[in-house]
Specification:
The complex is a heterodimer. Chain A has helices at residues 14-29, 41-44, 64-75, 81-90, 99-105, 123-130; strands at 4-9, 33-38, 94-98, 119-121, 135-138. Chain A is of the alpha/beta class. Chain A has a single domain, classed as 3-Layer(aba) Sandwich (Hypothetical Protein Ychn, Chain: A), CATH 3.40.1260.10. A five-stranded parallel beta sheet of chain A has the order 4-3-2-1-5, with helices on both faces. In chain A, helix 1 runs parallel beside helix 4 (81-90). Chain A is globular. Chain B is α+β, with helices and mostly antiparallel strands. Chain B contains two helices and four strands; from the N terminus they run βαβαββ. Chain B has a four-stranded mixed beta sheet with strand order 1-2-4-3, covered by helices on one side. In chain B, a hairpin with a 2-residue loop joins strand 3 (56-63) and strand 4 (66-72). Classes of the chains: A alpha/beta, B alpha+beta. Chain A binds chain B through residues 22, 25-26, 28-31, 76-79, 84, 87, 90-91, and chain B through 10-15, 17-18, 20-22, 25, 48-49, 52-53.
């Protein structure tokens, strides 16, 4: 069985979503399997047109900080989250949406980017994947 | 045996690594993938990925910020 990375994305902050997608696609590029569990604030990023909407985890300054970081990222030619997600999916990455979060926050499947989601799961799904993973991260 | 060019000049982490992987997936056994780029860390990391995937690293040429890597699938 291939080596695997399992990531829990609890945060919906833009910079942390970058971390999860970069690590996930890096793992796929290096021959591993990868899954990202979108839960709590992270799940908000799976809403339709929600992927790029997260605040900056520090120095957000009502959006000014995020805008400045975005300018710097554009200058450095950093890929958009949309592109990273597309690559992650193209290389076989799995996206799992947390069902409990959906219930708590009143999110329906049709509110989410169902084309990205491979499964709707709970903690058992995560544990089952994580126990066979070489790397597991909580972001 | 085809030669596949991946031009990652100006791209930064993780795009060169990801684009290389995409090209490897599309290549046929025996094809050579030529990756050109300017991102320093990718010059070291693409060869790591090639080894991890069990493929042949044909050559790594050029400087840290202007390099060419050849991979045989």
């Amino acid at each position: 069985m291939a080596e695997r990375v399992t990531i829990v994305l609890h945060s919906g902050d833009m910079d942390k979503v970058y971390s999860a997608l970069i690590i996930g696609s890096g793992a796929l590029a290096m021959g591993m399997e990868a899954s990202i569990y979108f839960t709590f604030w992270g799940l908000q990023r799976l809403k339709k047109s929600g992927l790029e909407k997260g605040p900056l985890s520090k120095m957000h300054f009502l959006g000014l900080g995020k805008w400045m970081v975005r300018q710097r990222m554009k200058k450095a030619n950093v890929a958009t989250l949309e592109r990273l997600m597309r690559d992650f999916k193209e290389l076989g990455g799995k996206v799992i949406a947390c069902e409990m979060t959906m219930e708590i926050m009143g999110i329906r499947r049709e509110d989410l980017r169902e084309d990205w989601i491979d499964a709707y799961g709970a903690v058992g799904t995560y544990i089952q994947e994580a126990r066979g993973s070489q790397i597991t991260l909580f972001i | 045996m085809a030669e596949i060019l991946v031009d990652c000049r100006g791209e930064t982490c993780p795009v060169p690594l990801v684009e290389t992987r995409k090209a490897i997936r599309q290549a046929q056994p025996g094809d050579v993938i030529v990756v050109i780029g300017t991102h320093p860390a990718s010059r070291e990391e693409i060869p790591m990925a090639v080894r991890a995937l069990g493929l042949e690293l044909v050559s790594v040429e050029g400087t840290e910020t202007d390099w060419t890597i050849r991979i045989r699938r």
